UniProtKB/TrEMBL annotation:
The gene is der. Keywords: GTP-binding, Nucleotide-binding, Repeat, Ribosome biogenesis. InterPro entries: AAA+_ATPase, G_ENGA, GTP-bd, GTPase_Der, KH_dom-like, KH_dom-like_a/b, P-loop_NTPase, Small_GTP-bd. GTP 1 binds at residues 9-16, 56-60, 119-122. Associates with the 50S ribosomal subunit. GTP 2 binds at residues 186-193, 233-237, 298-301. GO terms for molecular function: GTP binding; ribosome binding. This is GTPase Der. It comes from Pararobbsia silviterrae. Belongs to the TRAFAC class TrmE-Era-EngA-EngB-Septin-like GTPase superfamily. EngA (Der) GTPase family. The keyword GTP-binding applies. PANTHER family: GTPASE DER (PTHR43834:SF6). Residues 3-167, 180-353 form the EngA-type G domain. One of its GO terms (biological process) is ribosome biogenesis.
Length: 438
């Protein structure tokens, strides 16, 4: 599981500026997807070999009793409780504000480790910036500038050292699971627990592991048609007797963690409700993470053909950025469509893990260019020479050549389509990176 860093602080201290800086490399990878809906409060970052999830908790209003501010405060508290480390941001230009003290008290009570940073410190002397904030009782503050980037990497390094302390190496974790790792995600009440129970009747469960603390996930190994799977479920299921049931309020953080830990995500939607912004945000995160995806449109039972047409149309409109994924219309309760859904899971896994040999990739590239050349940009025409595979889950295809920064998004999508067709890549995002040799 990737550790979670929560950015906390009162409004205007620079949380979203810092968030954008931490997640920017991911942004660049998915920026050109038409219709992609993104939640700017949750993202992924990486320092060296250490990935992490980062949450911008928004404006912190601990005093609000009800209304929208109250709900924001609830989500903030949840993010704080679920984080591995808190980056508490204060404003070096404004100095200490009364609200900073309230927040500091609250954070201390949460028991989570805290890294205190004074933002907007560019061009200021450390002693002058820091002096005000010792009073918070959180030790030496770090001075950073989110806008300019000063001190940001060092701060995240420190936060990650805390978050990763005592964690097993990634290889150990991987060795503990068998088969395709699946996450079943979706809004509350779409039918996740019902699907889990349908998928893995008691007899199919091989191993069931629920480590002692509530912060850990439940992993369930099971077999279907002789194939092994591990269900990654951090969306909050617990086992009562023979069945699994939801234990807690919907958690965005845990949903994101299970997505990033899975090979294939099953995104469940409720056919009896419209596609919501939350559905689209979860889908957006699957794409950003590059996870293979199968969409299950659940509760298909009991709908007339008019309702079915309407929901299909709604999905095509709101989720068009998921055109790489298969949609299945299922009933978890009545166990219809589940076999086909799982076949698509297998297909998506195979695509995500496909080995794409350089000669075949290069052949496909050259064929694609012969069929349709990239446009000139001014006097230069991009020249595409060869391609190799740069990664799996998602597959990354690295295209080499000259003047490749002149390649348009439309041409990139054209190439993606050609590669998908040639290699039969259904159900996984595909990333194409360009590397110019001059
Ligand atoms: P949030 O409300 O905590 O998310 O704060 P924002 O990220 O929206 O930033 C609030 C304001 O502070 C914006 O006008 C930013 O441009 C500015 N700001 C953010 N970081 C810095 C910084 O490092 N230095 C300076 N001078 N301004 C900053
Ligand atoms: P979760 O919160 O996503 O885990 O959702 P649950 O599995 O607890 O299901 C929420 C409600 O939807 C329950 O009342 C289920 O009985 C119902 N439900 C789940 N799957 C189906 C289905 O395929 N068809 C219908 N009609 N109801 C379903």
């Amino acid at each position: 599981m990737k550790p979670v860093i929560a950015l906390v602080g009162r409004p205007n201290v620079g949380k979203s500026t810092l968030f954008n800086r931490l997640t920017r490399t991911r942004d660049a990878l998915v920026a050109d997807l038409p219709g992609l809906t993104r939640d700017r409060h949750y993202g992924e970052g990486r320092v060296g070999s250490r990935p992490y999830l980062v949450v911008d908790t928004g404006g912190f209003e601990p005093v609000a009793k009800d209304g929208i501010l109250h709900e924001m405060a609830r989500q903030t508290r949840q993010a704080v409780e679920e984080s591995d480390v808190i980056v508490f941001i204060v404003d070096g230009r404004n100095g200490l504000a009364p609200q900073d003290k309230t927040i500091a008290d609250y954070l201390r009570k949460s028991g989570r480790p805290i890294v205190l940073v004074v933002n907007k410190a560019e061009g200021m002397r450390y002693s002058a910036v820091a002096a005000d904030f010792y009073e918070l009782g959180l030790g030496d503050p770090r001075a950073i500038s989110s806008a300019h980037g000063d001190g940001v990497t060092e701060t995240i390094d420190d936060a990650l050292a805390i978050a990763y302390a005592g964690r097993p190496e990634e290889d150990d974790e991987a060795a503990n699971t068998r088969g395709t790792k699946i996450a079943i995600v979706g809004r509350p009440n779409v039918g996740k627990s019902t699907l889990v129970n349908t998928l893995i009747g008691e007899e199919r469960v091989i191993a069931f592991d629920m480590p002692g603390t509530t912060r850990d996930s439940i992993h369930v190994e099971f077999e279907r048609q002789g194939r092994p799977y591990t269900l990654i479920d951090t969306a909050g299921l617990r086992r009562r007797g023979r069945v699994f049931e939801a234990i807690e309020k919907f958690s965005v953080v845990k949903t994101l963690q299970s997505i990033s830990d899975a090979n294939v995500v099953i995104l469940l939607l409720d056919a009896q409700q419209d596609v919501s912004e939350q559905d689209a945000h979860i889908a957006g995160f699957v794409v950003e993470q590059g996870r293979a995806l199968v969409v299950g449109v659940n509760k298909w039972d009991g709908l007339d053909s008019h309702a079915r047409d309407r929901i299909k149309h709604d999905m095509q409109r709101k989720l068009k950025f998921l055109d790489f994924a298969k949609f299945h219309f299922v009933s978890a309760k009545e166990n219809t469509g589940i076999g086909a859904l799982m076949r698509s899971v297998d297909e998506a896994y195979a695509a995500a893990m496909a080995k794409l040999p350089t000669p075949r990739l290069t052949r496909a590239l050259i064929d694609a260019v012969q069929f349709q050349q990239p446009r000139r940009k001014g006097p230069v025409r991009p020249k595409l020479r060869y391609a190799h595979q740069g990664g799996q889950n998602p597959p990354i295809i690295v295209v080499h050549g000259n003047a490749l920064d002149a390649i348009t998004d439309a041409y990139k999508r054209y190439l993606e389509g050609r590669f998908r067709e040639t290699f039969g890549l259904t159900g996984t995002p595909l990333r194409i990176e360009f590397r110019s040799s001059q």
